Amino acid sequence: MADKLTPERRSWNMSRIRGKNTKPELLVRRLLHAKGYRYRLHGKAGATRLPGNPDLVFAGRRKVIFVNGCFWHFHDCRVGLHAPQANAEFWAAKRSRTRERDARQRRLLEDAGWQVLTVWECELKDSSALESELVRFLETGR
Q: Which of 3, 24, 69, 109 lies 20 to 30 Å from 100 when distance is taken between CA atoms?
């Protein structure tokens, strides 16, 4: 049986998890770049910062893409629904706040005239379906 992590070790592990330039985000960026799409990174639309700092910004199209980890953003897939046993109340509250913040930021963007797509980490497994969804999102409503 594996030893339980000390709070200090868990804190250290958690501090190493990045919010930008994650593997899922880089995969989506490479896929779109190979298709000829160009974008700004991390919520920059010219000199303006957008609510929620979207991972990819297509300013000319008024579209943004968030690439979310299923666990961290409480997705309804198997990984997102996993509830940690250790410090369960803390994690439930933290993940609920993240979900509420995501919804609030999405509303702010949509109210400002932006179209928003969220790509979930679990969707990266099927690259052809992901590519189709991304192209459809970027090419519709222009």
A: 24
In whole angstroms, give the CA distance from residue 121 to residue 2. 27
Judge whether 131 and 31 are in contact, CB under 8 Å.
yes
The answer to whether the CB of 56 falls within 8 A of the CB of 47 is no
pLDDT tens digits, 32-74? 999 999 999 887 766 678 988 899 999 999 999 999 988 777 7
Burial class for 40, CB neighbours closer than 10 Å (0-12, 13-18, 19+): middle
C-alpha of 3 from chain center? 31
The architecture CATH gives domain 19-139: 3-Layer(aba) Sandwich (3.40)
